[in-house]
Amino acid sequence: MATTSGVQSSTVDPALLTTMNGAKASTNSTEDAKNTFMTLLVTQLKNQDPLNPMDNAQVTSQLAQLSTVSGIDKLNASVTALSASFQNGQNLQAANMIGHGVIAPGNTMVVTDGKGIYGLELPQAASNVDVVIRDSSNVVVRKMTLGALPQGVNTLTWDGKTDAGATAANGAYKFEFVANAADKKLDVTSLAFGVVSSITSGSQGLKLSLPNIGDVSMNDVRQIY
Length: 225
What we know:
The protein has 225 residues and is an alpha+beta fold. The chain contains two helices and 17 strands. It has helices spanning 30-47, 56-95, and strands at 3-4, 7-8, 19-20, 23-24, 101-105, 108-111, 116-122, 126-134, 140-149, 152-158, 171-181, 184-185, 189-195, 198-202, 205-210, 214-217, 223-224. The strands form five sheets. The protein has a five-stranded antiparallel beta sheet, with no helix packed on it. Strands 6, 8, 9, 11 and 12 form a five-stranded antiparallel beta sheet that branches.
């Protein structure tokens, strides 16, 4: 830094923002950087050469840069706080779902006292849908034609009656669909019904535990009962 008549010149050296009296300033705190900058600025303002005053444009530019850094730091803190608040809210919402039934992707149906709940999600309206239900030994116990179904989530019930007219025993059954729109075969998402037994929160996000389905994310839930 040049001198005039023994007085330091008025330009603010950017290097002084990171070095002061030979010691490196802390880079971990925006507040420390701001305090260091303001101390240097006030010192130079007090000692500036009246014949060679400080460059206002340069000082304004550096103040703007410091303000930007400070603003980003505050924005990051706000986003972190909002994210934590959202996560807490989602955890609370999920905890309230324990004991409630949900419909989520899956192909297992639990039959209790002659009643089972299942469903499917269609990308468009189907002119006809067929379903095949199998027992735990993979033996077909019922084939049904459901007819036309609308686009979206369709929740269905099975009365537990087999093709032979008997009542299916309590337990788990598998099901699969074949859906068509005129002559076009549709991609079907099979949906299972389960009761939320617990929730877990980990690196992969919040999960709902459904005994007959497994762990599913909140985003996979199609309906809540």
